[in-house]
Amino acid sequence: MTTDAPVPALEPGRRIETLDELTHEQAQAVLALLADAARADGMQAVSEQGRLQLRGGRREGVSHLLLTVHGDLVGYAQLEDTDPVEAPAAELVVHPAHRGRGHGRALGSALLAASGKRLRVWAHGGKSAARHLSQVLGLTLFRELRQMRRPLTDLSDIPEPVFPPGITVRTFVPGQDDAAWLAVNAAAFAHHPEQGSLTQRDLDDRKAEPWFDPKGFFLAVREPDGELVGFHWTKVHAEEQLGEVYVVGVSPEAQGGGLGKALTAIGLRHLAAEGVPTAMLYVDADNTAAVRVYEGMGFTTHEVDLMYRSET
Known about the structure:
The protein has helices spanning 24-41, 48-52, 103-114, 128-136, 178-188, 193-196, 200-207, 259-273, 288-296; strands at 2-4, 14-19, 62-69, 72-80, 89-94, 120-123, 140-151, 167-171, 217-222, 227-237, 242-250, 278-284, 300-309. Strands 1-2-3-4-5-6-13-7-12-11-10-9-8 form a 13-stranded mixed β-sheet, with helices on both faces. By secondary structure, the chain is of the alpha+beta class. The chain is elongated and about 65 Å long. Helices cover 29% and strands 31% of the residues. It is built from nine helices and 13 strands.
């Protein structure tokens, strides 16, 4: 499917095309645009999930908006309408060499039109230009996602992990543990639609990425039946020399016994052994209990991502 969206204050040669899947060439052009923007901004404008959704054909509820000027790609937005309750979520970016010409507003207006003015938009890094655009589009701030970091050069402040009785830890076996992990992830993050709704396809996408390493994917299992009750999936960003607490989850019936903290500690020790000097993680600012735990483990806020939404 392809449609042309209404574009405010049309610049000569500007066009916005909406697609429900991208060709290989289109996906590569978007990835190149994202790479140029990341070099200029010091961060990615589109999340990992959004970048994965550029490839592999059509995905239910996901659409791609390509903004071109005289045929050259200068802007991109992605709209995901998969949450049964929340408004559709979007991310957008304009090439650094083409900013200040109304392209961001054009993409934002097209997203509002496509979503029926029910829209949530991420502004990664909370840049002032993104805040201004949100005001122009009539969006208000409602979510703050913190990126926290701590050094890994000295872990003397992290005690040896102690696991509840009957719990042992092993690493993830691709193929064997997929279904059990997806079930525990869904239960642990039932309140968190982005993480809790991951599917086998989403897991397969991540397993196919160059950074995937099952040696850094720790599973807590209850003996003697081997029931999966928690996990800590770590990630190494080799180019940035960062280790990530990618996701820590504990099944609801196993929460409250210190399992999550012990899994976090074992993952941090693994990342330190991999030789990366710094660890990072993401946590919602209003999850005060988790923020306190991470602050107690030496993490401090490095930057924030902000989400804005329409009032309708």
